[in-house]
Amino acid sequence: MKRLAAVLLILIASPVAAQPFAVTGPVPNATLGPPVDLAFGAYQRGYYVTALKEAMKRIDADANDAIAMTLVGELYAQGAGVRKDAKESARWFKLASDRGDRQATFSYAMAKLRGEGADKDVPGALALLEKAAAKDHDGALYNLGIAAVENNGVAPDFKKAIGYFNRSASLGNSDAAYSLALLYKGGQAVEQDLAKAAEWMARAANDNNLNAIVDLAILQFNGDGLEKDEVAAAKLFLKAANRNSPIAQNRAGRLLAAGRGVPKNMIEAMKWHLLARSAGLQDDWLDAQLATLNQQEKQAVEEAVRKYVGR
What's the first-to-final CA gap in the chain, in angstroms? Predict the structure, then answer.
């Protein structure tokens, strides 16, 4: 309801200042590997209390059951079926990591990297990521690539990063594929190649990577690295807009207002414009289009926003 109120205020409020829009690759969500019998089955179905009980039964029966320990660590990390406790989560991840579970090694590394539940220890975290990466953990490889780019204040090692991103992407990590696309697009450590950028962007977008969907839409709309196709680009923008990407909502608003790639529809255009503006993306041209609407049309926009926010 708060977002709805913020959006609707734009119908009568003066324009807000433009806000920068930064696209960053998120750290991949943890995945727990093979099923843990009844415990993991309960976890998958959302029966978290049962999952914890079953995992603890396994640990009671086998003090070296690393997979069950990893599941317990994840439950504490999420606060699922138990009080959220980063310290307890890290403790279980360490126990499981010491017993060879690669997911636990990755999760414990991230806890140390962020200083959440464990003392912040970047060198120690990187060593653990290398350990998980040696077992082909795609998230560990991706984060090692990010670390090579950030490089603790030293000049970025893009060559090293590309190696990690390639290995991670080959294992299906969409964030790594997206990172490769950005490097080829910007010509960092590799010769600029928009065709390769578009290829990697498409791979990430096909895995539903939101940032990649938006950037692929931009490449396709402009014909950079692949054939220009405004209809295909509009579909991608609308897909991302429906997943609450402000920049995609802004672009969808522009395309609908201009009738490019999609039939012209001012009500839908202004709906997306208001949603993007509520997230801080100012657009003077769309503001001007909004001002041309009559009261009945503005009411239709208000209803469209209400339906979207309340869905």
Answer: 11
Pair of tokens at residue 310: 């309340």
Domain boundary among 89, 107, 131: 131
Please report whether residue 304 resides in a domain: yes
Residue 175 lies in a domain: yes
Tell me if 130 sits within 8 A of 122, measured CB to CB: no
Nearest one of 221, 231, 227, 228 to 262, comparing CA atoms: 231
Distance, in Å, from the CA atom of 65 to the CA atom of 49, rounded to the nearest integer, reads 19
pLDDT band per the 50, 70, 90 thresholds, residue 218: very high
Spatial separation of the C-alpha atoms in residues 221 and 304, rounded to whole Å: 26
Per-residue pLDDT for 174 more than 70?
yes
Would residue 23 count as lying in a domain? no
Residues 218, 249: contact at Cβ < 8 Å? no
* Inter-residue contact 74 to 106 (CB < 8 Å): no
H or E stretch covering 269? helix 266-278
Within the chain, how many helices (H) and strands (E) appear? 17, 0
Distances (CA, A) of 84 to 26, 81, 101, 287: 22, 9, 22, 44
281: tokens are 């993306």
Q: Compare 9 and 51 and report the one with higher pLDDT.
A: 51
- For residue 222, the enclosing domain spans 136-228
Is the pLDDT assigned to residue 153 strictly greater than 90? no
Statement to judge: residues 54 and 89 lie in one domain: yes
Same domain, 259 and 310: yes
Secondary structure class of 241 (helix, strand, coil): helix
Res 32: pLDDT: 53
Token pair 């503006």: residue: 277
Closest CA to 103 of 177, 29, 168: 29
Kindly state the DSSP code that residue 153 receives in the 8-state scheme.
G
**Are the CB atoms for 177 and 209 separated by under 8 Å?**
yes
Residue 30 has pLDDT above 60, yes or no: no
* Whether pLDDT at 13 is above 50: no
